[in-house]
Specification:
The chain is an alpha+beta fold. The protein has 3 domains: about 130 residues, no CATH class; about 30 residues; about 130 residues, Alpha-Beta Complex (Nucleoside Triphosphate Pyrophosphohydrolase), CATH 3.90.79.10. It contains 9 helices and 14 strands. Bound molecules: zinc ion. The site of zinc ion has 8 residues, from loops.
């Protein structure tokens, strides 16, 4: 491991990734103070991040990038009782909340002063300040959890929001339920001079990327990298180094970016997670990045940790 890789993981390289620059003061110890949260919500500085069940609703002409005034949010159907407290932006003192509106995207998009967009597209366009994308990642993960966890997993009765949206409580059995973050390993496996890149069928045509997979309970990051790589490619992995991490709000993952050293080299993609997998030398990876690959193959866009693992390896920064 180089001295560079041993530095704090949010280094300048990873700061270029989307969703890593959330500057909100989450004020976790104040979340149980409902009067405090109510005052913040009703105050003039409050900003509400709105979404439909699938997309974000952004203000179009208020000068705000992502947040709506409370009145505007209520006017399109937001519910005061369903607001998740995200935190306070230190530089502006604006408290941010988030909630979902159960309305069609088209219906919202037709309203003056509102636009509807999905978060992935928004990140790819790179028009927003990085800190806004961090706030939206937090909002999307929490909103998704509330939408999909309305009932107690212990007794099946309805649960309700508590702790500013960081818990759901069951009034029937007293159960407390907490938001999920699902860790995934994402790894660039190399033999030193070649990188192991694969093509999951869901990706747009031509994209080759690092292997990845969900961690399982009771598993270390290193073992998850080894297991997933073996399952997907047949390659055995030795040393594993955690390089960086990235919240990935589709819907609530944490990507753990690793570098792994291959111990075997014959690829076997018997399981169907990848439709192709191959070793790519530095010259070929360079073509993929430069857009000069003879087959038109490319790597994922710079919003993703995969892009930074691949380019970091190619430029010998990892
Ligand atoms: Zn219950």
């Amino acid at each position: 491991m180089t001295a560079h890789a041993a530095e704090p993981i949010h280094d300048p390289m990873t700061a270029e990734m989307s969703f890593t620059a959330n500057t909100l003061d989450r004020q976790a110890v104040q979340r149980s103070d409902t009067a405090y949260l109510q005052d913040l919500l009703e105050g003039p500085a409050a900003r509400i991040v709105l979404s439909t069940p699938t997309k974000l609703i952004l203000p179009d002409n208020t000068g705000e990038t992502i947040g709506h005034q409370l009145d505007a949010a209520l006017a399109v159907g937001a519910d005061r009782r369903e607001m998740v407290f995200l935190g306070v932006e230190p530089s502006t003192a604006k408290p941010y909340f988030a909630t979902t509106i159960d309305r069609d995207d088209d219906e919202i998009a037709a309203m003056p002063g509102l636009k509807v967009i999905d978060l992935r597209t928004l990140a790819l366009r790179a028009e927003l300040p990085p800190s806004d994308l961090g706030i939206l990642a937090q909002a999307r993960a929490l909103i998704h959890w509330h939408r999909t966890h309305r009932f107690c997993s212990r007794c099946g009765q309805p649960s309700k929001m508590a702790e500013g949206g960081y818990r759901r409580d069951c009034g029937s059995c007293g159960g407390h339920h907490f938001p999920r973050t699902d860790p995934c390993v994402i790894m660039l496996i190399t033999d030193g001079e070649r990188a192991l890149l694969g093509r999951p069928p869901r990706l747009p045509e031509g994209i080759f990327t690092t292997l990845a997979g969900f961690m399982e309970p009771g598993e270390t990051i290193e073992d998850a990298v080894r297991r997933e790589t073996l399952e997907e490619s047949g390659i055995r992995v030795g040393k594993v180094t955690l390089i960086s991490d990235q919240p990935w709000p589709f819907p609530a993952n944490l990507m753990l970016g690793c570098l792994g050293e291959a111990l075997s080299f014959d690829i076997d993609i018997e399981d169907d997670e990848l439709e192709a997998c191959r070793w790519c030398d530095r010259a070929e990876v360079r073509q993929m990045i430069d857009g000069t690959h003879p087959d038109g193959d490319i790597i994922p866009p710079s919003i993703s940790i995969a892009h930074h693992l691949i380019t970091g390896w190619l430029e010998r920064r990892l």
